[in-house]
Design goal:
By secondary structure, the protein is mainly alpha-helical. It has a domain of 61 residues. The protein contains three helices and two strands. The termini are far apart. 8% of the residues are buried.
Length: 98
């Protein structure tokens, strides 16, 4: 381990994040050859804007089973999946006796 602190340029940092994303892609679910950006976001914990910037680059190496990466987030837009939640039952008020 190096005890001196080295400052890395932006390109070096992006290269390291790119490598982290490439290593994480085989571990995320692939559906019909498509990987969701949300899955990568959860797996890598890389900030969303930085992750989107890395995925926009053309030099990303994808595994054979991955054809593309969907960069439209469902989590960040607040899209709900599944059944609609029921409204909570309204509580009956107690009647006051005279």
């Amino acid at each position: 381990m190096n005890t001196t602190t080295e400052t890395l340029s932006d390109e070096e940092m992006l290269a390291r994040y790119k490598q982290a994303v490439e290593r994480a892609i085989p571990h995320v679910p692939v559906k019909n050859g498509v990987v969701e950006i949300d899955s990568l976001w959860v797996e890598t914990s890389i900030p969303y804007t930085l992750l989107k910037e890395i995925l926009a680059r053309n030099d990303l190496i994808l595994p054979e089973n991955v054809q593309r990466i969907n960069t439209t987030s469902r989590v960040r837009t607040g899209e709900k999946r599944g059944k609609k939640k029921r409204k909570p039952r309204r509580r009956k008020k107690n009647k006051v006796r005279n």
